[in-house]
Amino acid sequence: MGFINTLQTLLDEKGISRNKFCADIGVNKNAVSNWENRGTVPGGKTLAKISTYFEVPIEHLTETEKPTDSERRPATRRETLMQEARRELSELPDSELERALSVLRALKQK
After folding, report:
1. What is the mean pLDDT of residues 92-108?
2. Mean pLDDT of 54-71
């Protein structure tokens, strides 16, 4: 499908304007035009923001063809947990997000 088509589909499905999308993720409207006109894909950090914004895996944004139902594999437990964690973290205020990050770092050190 291509990145820009996938992005447009997500915007349409969610009823989000390009202006709102740009403001929400902090990109310039010209950047979206460049992605569209040049057929490029944004960098990793921006892709991660878009992935979180729409609650979809980065791979969904960058895949060129949508797999058919028979080709689509079910999400792994880890993928499901990561999506849920992203969703929960995105709703926290900054101060709580910093605390959550501290907890994650402590768990990682164990």
Report:
1. 89
2. 75
The amino acid occupying position 48 is A
Cβ(60)–Cβ(1) below 8 Å: no
Q: If we measure between CA atoms, which residue out of 64, 74, 104 comes closest to residue 86?
A: 104
pLDDT at 64: 60
In whole angstroms, what is the distance from residue 96 CA to residue 101 CA?
9
- Determine the Cα–Cα distance for residues 47 and 58; give it in Å rounded to an integer: 7
How many Cβ atoms sit within 10 Å of the Cβ of residue 1?
Answer: 15
Question: What's the pLDDT at 97?
Answer: 87
By CB atoms closer than 10 A (0-12, 13-18, 19+), residue 89 is middle
* Cβ atoms of residues 32 and 18 within 8 Å: yes
